[in-house]
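Box S1 | Example of a co-folding query
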Amino acid sequence: MNPILLPSNRPAERFYRGGARISEFRGEAVAAPREPEDWIGSTTTVNGERALGLTMLPDGRVLRDAIERDPVAWLGDEHVARWGADTRLLVKLLDAGQRLPVHAHPHDDFAAAHLGRAHGKAEAWYTLEGGTVHIGLRQDVEAADLAALVERQDATTLLGLLHEVEVATGDVVWVPPGELHAIGAGVLLLELQQPEDLSILLEWGDFAIDGAAVGHLGLGFDLALAAVTRTARSAADLAALISAAPRVRLRLPRGCRRVLPTRTGSRARSRDRRSGILDRDRERRRRRDRRAATSQRLDPARAPRGRSARRDRHGRAARGAPAGALKPESTRILPG
Ligand SMILES: [Zn+2]
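Box S1 (continued) | Returned holo structure for zinc ion
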């Protein structure tokens, strides 16, 4: 294997702020205020763009073209036999300099039927630096109520509809297509997703985008919101979506070195179990301090601590247990 070192690939002028920690991680000069994503090994373009988002190889070729010319060499026989030259994957670094808007992505069938796209957009997050994420409805929502909240741009109520979850370094969050979600300010993620740039935005007041014009993917909100899941997620559902990262021993090829943090969160949880300290206020203070220090290097030693974890019947930390600390359910009533 011959690893190819790729420079960063950061579409400019995204609609939300962030990116300083990607510059730091990459050892690059400080970027513009709204370059919060690095599209790694990308064969995907920014929605509506011809080339923006595509990865350029160091030899000047476009990665997408190189794969199309020789898919077996890049993807292997089995993959090509099943999927052709479609990589089926887009990987991003995502540095949320501000909370992202409440949004969802279409599933495959919807994207094929209404957008003529080969994929919807399911995504999963590997947490590099933790914080708050919002995912899944706390109660069912009627279509008319959701549409009214979007119409009124009631961001506070929209966000309040979602479960609020604390995630730490190493936690993995699965975001099925259709699921409403928002990544909190200060969270740094490695995102694995289907190779599309299709987002249905439900709020846009604090963002550099005309959501009324483009937040519905050109379909109108009546149709676009039909792709959004309006049924509630229980705590058990969330436990299936959010888990501590599996422990994997990697044998790295020559010339590669590990740069992602390891499971510092779980070690910290063990420490807390011994001391009996599960102090959420302390965790909140630590998160606030961490956000303030946005220029710090990606450093496992500074990863969030103070997390709780479920145990299995032997008393061990359960691998598949929800890693996030769920906010207690409350009984917010939707506006009629
Ligand atoms: Zn998303």
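The radius of gyration is 20 Å. Residues 264-282, 294-336 have pLDDT under 50 and may be disordered.
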